[in-house]
Amino acid sequence: MDGQTSTDAPGFVRTRGMRFPRHDAIIQGKVRRLLRTNGYEAKESEAALRVVREGDVVVELGGGIGYMSTLVATKRAVKSVHVFEANPNLIPYIESVHAVNGVTNAHVTNAILGPRKGTADFYIREPMLGSSLEVLDGETDPPSVKVDVLDAKSTLQDIGANILICDIEGAEVDLIPQLDLTGLRAAIIETHPQWIGPEGINKVFRAFMDAGLAYYHRGSHGKVLAFRTSW
């Protein structure tokens, strides 16, 4: 439960029954504190545990530290989970988290999804989890890497995903309306109104409603929005 402190195993930070290897550049400060008190991604976790079912095929956009993919794989026995993470420095860590938690049905790809294949600039920052596709106000020539952009429509079709989990630091306003969402049973989106504004939030809502998914209040909390079909 949130607010309860987990006991760390040697070499790991433990949370909700999952283990996260200690890593000085990734598991630090606020991230470590929230993991230890089961507060990390608490709203997203509650939403996922409400909507994800055994046998689902999950696509996660923005893999972070591998938390959500590990959660749904270990708590809901999904058929598979497909993680797309833009930051190449996080890929080995995500894979290590899956390994130590016995997750064998996860697939991790260093790429983002978009309207067509290509490449994009991804800006690397410290702490690592603050990296994004956008240049922030006040930044001048931040360090960046090129990341592959995969065709979103064909990628989702090939995977056969019926669940979408998305936390991509404001890029949702451009990406979500471009996706074919009609094959989804449910979606969990962390929105970023501080960057995309009310018009951006409306665009995200409209995309899901046009695809036949309705706002699900029991899975939504603040900036975390859940959508689902009636079946």
Helix content: 25-40%
Q: Which oligomeric form is depicted?
A: single chain
CATH architecture annotation name? 3-Layer(aba) Sandwich
**What's the CATH class, please?**
Alpha Beta
Number of helices: 7
Strand content: 15-25%
In N-to-C order, the SSE pattern is EEHHEHEHEEEEHEHEHEE
Read across the widest sheet, the strand sequence of neighbours is 5-4-3-9-10-12-11
| Radius of gyration of CA atoms, rounded to a whole number | 17 Å
SSE-based structural type:
alpha/beta
Number of strands: 12
End-to-end Cα distance, whole Å, is 29 Å
What profile does the largest beta sheet have?
A: 7 strands, mixed
pLDDT below 50 for ≥5 consecutive residues: which ranges?
Answer: none
Arithmetic mean of pLDDT: 90
**What would you give as the CATH superfamily?**
Vaccinia Virus protein VP39
What's the domain count?
A: 1
What is the CATH topology assignment? Rossmann fold
- The backbone outline, from C-alpha atoms, is globular
GO molecular function: methyltransferase activity
InterPro entries: FkbM_mtfrase, SAM-dependent_MTases_sf
Keywords: Methyltransferase, Transferase
GO biological process, one term: methylation
